[in-house]
Design a protein that fits this description.
With 155 residues, the chain is of the alpha+beta class. It has one domain. The protein contains three helices and nine strands, in the order H-E-E-E-H-E-E-H-E-E-E-E. The longest helix has 17 residues. It is globular, with a radius of gyration of 15 Å. The two termini are 29 Å apart.
């Protein structure tokens, strides 16, 4: 994977819903030995999935929204608790924002399968306070490769 693209993925800020309000975090933090100090959500198992812009191909807004709703419906039918989230660049000049689904307690292999089906370059999977970016694009040379991240809480 291109290193600039990987840095961009790690620095993406995610707005995640919690009972106490929105939690802003990214995967470009310092290595954390004691994950118990993280906000509760970040210590749980979950996936961040989207159906927007498969393989980085910009699709019309309506098509992206339809794909994203199909993804949500499939997740709900599968018995998952799903909440809306969003990812965006930290650069103040950027207008890129991409909706995602926070999928609670999702299995890693199933999250990867959803990423492949919806033709995403990568997905985010987290468990026990350890987030990772997993390459899911079936046309990529490094499919299945994992890049370990570290949570960084943003204010």
């Amino acid at each position: 994977m291109d290193q600039a693209l990987l840095r961009s993925y790690l620095a993406t800020i995610y707005e995640l819903p919690t009972p106490n309000g929105v939690l802003r975090s990214s995967l470009d933090g310092e290595i954390v030995q004691d994950t118990s100090a993280l906000p509760e959500l970040l210590g749980r198992r979950f996936a961040l999935l989207t159906a927007y812009n498969p393989r980085s191909m910009l699709l019309p807004r309506k098509v992206n929204e339809q794909r994203h709703h199909v993804l949500r419906d499939l997740l709900i039918i599968g018995g998952y608790r799903v909440e809306p989230a969003v990812g965006y660049e930290a650069d103040a000049d950027s207008v890129w924002r991409e909706p995602a689904w926070l999928v609670h307690r999702m299995d890693r292999e199933e999250a990867i399968a959803f990423g492949r089906v919806f033709r995403q370059n990568t997905i985010v999977f987290a468990d026990l306070g350890r987030p990772e970016i997993i390459v899911t694009d079936p046309t990529a040379d490094d499919i299945g490769r994992t890049f370990q991240g570290n949570w960084r809480v943003r204010t």
